[in-house]
Amino acid sequence: MFRRHEPAPTRRELLRLAAAGVAGSSLSGWLGPLAARATGKSRKACILLWMDGGPSHHDTFDPKPDAAAEIRGELKAIDTAVPGIRVTEKFPTLAGLMKDCAVLRGMRTEEPDHGRARLYMHTGYRPGIGGVDYPVLGSVASAEIGDADSALPNFVVTGTPLNKYEFVTTPGYLGPRHQAMALADPAQGLENLRPLASDFDDRVGVLEEMERAFARKNPATPVEAHRTMVARTVRLIRSEKAKAFDLSKEPAAARDAYGDTGFGRGCLLARRLVEAGIPFVEVYLTNWDTHEKRAAEAAKGLMDQVDRGMGTLLRDLKERGLLDSTLVIWMGEFGRTPRVNRNGGRDHFSRAWTTFLAGGGIRGGQTFGKTDRDGASVTERPVSARDFMATVCRALGIDYAKTIDTPGGRPVKIVEKGAEPLSELFG
Q1: Which residues pair with 311 in a beta bridge?
Q2: Domain limits at 57?
Q3: pTM across the whole model
Q4: What is the CATH number of the domain that holds 58?
Q5: Which of 94, 118, 265, 323 could form a disulfide with 318 if both were Cys (CB 3.0 to 4.6 A apart)?
Q6: At what angle do helices 262-276 and 293-319 cross, to 10 degrees?
Q7: Residue 38's Cα: distance from chain center in Å?
Q8: For range 322-349, the mean pLDDT
Q9: What are phi and psi of 15, to 5 degrees?
Q10: CA distances from 328 to 49, 111, 357, 392, 395 (A)
Q11: What is the tens place of the pLDDT at every residue in 361-416?
Q12: Residue 419: CB atoms within 10 Å
């Protein structure tokens, strides 16, 4: 049976769910995450802007203007609002917002494979350690700071080709209750949950009977989870808060400010969802794998999208009083080699690279860590994946040292043992 506080869906609503593919995995992650206990403090949120493929630190936020030409590349370094901090010329908007931002130039993660590094930077655990399926950061946030009473999901991913990167919605040992709701196109929002034609109504009885029959024959936890998921989906359909997914509710000028790109729309959607109370939103921007000159040239367009979309996002959050409680992360899985290769691009490089933080209680206007003149090695305060994850958890009010018992009975810490958050980033 559906829980009493979650009314069973009507026949028409059940049909809409079936036609929308709700029985699949893409909507199964928001089944009622554990509620964050009232503390009297503002609820924390996180927006992760994921640069898939690994952007070059030289060409973004750790330029090396004094290095040789084959290392510094074509992009010039420009000053920012903070004396002494420079970024490349592709980020004039973010340069002007540097007082609210912290640049972590000491990333050193030693995992240069795309697939493994993606998972590493999403979980803080190297793949395969201990034979445990670790949850991604969004699932951790769903479990630790999510709101079980909300009709909205607690973890949303948008802008990603879902068939290729399903790992990013993986809740690991936390289970399907904390899997992400995935929207491939932020502009469509909940388009496929809108009312369908009435001629489908005669098929509703079949769907209902299938649900009942399957539950009778399979009285297991996953079956109940599926039924609960359907009920939660109906709650979202019925809720006025579902309008948060509708970008058409924004004035044309606001939509234009973010840029007419998938990433820009993803940033706008992220702001709307955080504003509505969703604690974790991840926005994907792909094609940073710049081994060749053609890809490196195309990446300059990605930089323009980031500067416009992320810059507008930070300004919007600050103007609305949300930046202090919302951590914004810009990162990929690693950086790129210091030296431009013979094909005019840069290859994978995990020994020294950069991430970018803003808001969420982070003290802005500073860099953390330092690389040598060529950006080839970290010379001051290296930051591991687990240190980075612990820092993010601290900003979100999550106890990174907390131990959770997996379904198999094994106690596991949220962040790998030995992690040290970067205390200097907090005021």
Answers
A1: none
A2: 45-139+283-425
A3: 0.85
A4: 3.40.720
A5: 323
A6: 30
A7: 24
A8: 98
A9: -65, -45
A10: 7, 23, 6, 10, 10
A11: 999 999 999 999 999 999 999 999 999 999 999 999 999 999 999 988 899 999 99
A12: 21
